[in-house]
Structures are given as C-alpha cells and as structure tokens.
Amino acid sequence: MKIAILSDTHGFLRPELFPHLEGVEEILHAGDVGPAGLLVELEAFAPVTAVWGNTDGFELRHRLPEIAHLERNDHRIVVMHGHQLGMPTPETVADAHPDVDLVIFGHTHRPVIEQVGSVLAVNPGSCGPRRFDLHPTLALAHLDPGHIEVEVIEIRSLE
Predict the structure, then answer these.
(1) Domain that holds residue 68
(2) pLDDT (tens digit, 9 = 90+) per residue, 29-62?
(3) Band of the pLDDT at 159, cuts 50, 70, 90?
(4) Does a structural domain hold residue 36?
C-alpha cells in the first residue's frame, strides 16, 4: 500500500507536489492544513485522513480529529500534529504512543524518520509555504504486511 504523508500545508498546495501524489492509495495529513477546501483538492488524488493542527480554524477542528488512530495492512498508525507535546521529537511522539507501529507528526516543519524502539516516528516536513531554511518536503510510505518503508522527498520546482 502506497501512502503520501503531508503536513503543514498552511493552505498552499504546490503544483510540484501533484506528481508525487499520483498512484497513492491514501493521503495522511498531519495538520496545519489551512482552509478546508485544500482537503477537497487532495481528495482528487486519493482518500484523505487528516488531523487538525494548532493553526487550523474552528471549521477544521469541528470536522477533523485532533489525533487519528488507523490500521493499514496490519500496522497500527497514529496521525497527530504534535503541538500537544510542545516541540515534538521522534522520542516524545513514540513515548506518547508506544503501542503503535507508526506515528506520523508535523509541527516542526523539519522532516525526520527515526525508529524509536518498536515505533517508527515520521515527520514529513512541510510541503506548504517555505519557512526557515527548509525546503518543502513530503514523505511516501509503502506499507506491506510486516514491513514499513518510508522516504522523505524534497519537492523541486517544475522548471
């Protein structure tokens, strides 16, 4: 199962993101979405499971969970923004959810993939407006029974 993992779009969908969404079976969004219409745009590619982040307004907070618990191909997954933990790290998200296989979080805009004990912690970075000295990124995950493989992809200009 191929899944796109996004976070921190802040209302901005780069056209350069679209080729990476082709062929995914699901999109997981770890919050700070922006306007709700952005989720509709993403649903043109695949079903979307999203959570709200600290900058999301009341419309999304009423529509989306703060934390999503999923199971895909026998893998237990948590999707959260991470603001609940202050400045989240792989260790803090894994400690908060030790009974899952994969924790997806955002908030820091910094991509990371780190195995913490039995939990794989993934922050796809931000694919929205560029902040700090960071390039826009997303993650692609392949979930097969008994195996998870995740890679972070830098979104490059279509030029």
Answers:
(1) 2-154
(2) 999 999 999 999 999 999 999 999 999 999 999 9
(3) very low
(4) yes
Per-residue pLDDT tens digits for 91-100: 999 999 999 9
Assigned domain for 148 exists: yes
Q: Contacts from 45-49 at CB under 8 Å and sequence distance 24+?
A: 45/4, 45/18, 45/21, 46/4, 46/21, 49/79
- The pairing of strands 2-6 and 26-29 is parallel
User: How many domains, in total, are found in the chain?
Assistant: 1
Sign of the Cα pseudo-torsion (11, 44, 4, 48, in order): positive
Give, in degrees to the nearest 5, the angle at Cα 92 between 87 and 98: 150
Instruction: Give alpha helix (H) positions in 64-109.
Output: 90-96
Q: Beta strand 48-50 with 26-29: parallel, antiparallel or unpaired?
A: parallel
pLDDT digits (tens, 9 = 90+) for 79-112: 999 999 999 999 999 999 999 999 999 999 999 9
| Residues 150 and 124 sit within 8 Å (Cβ to Cβ) | no
Count of CB atoms situated within 10 Å of the CB of 81: 27
Residue 159 lies in a domain: no
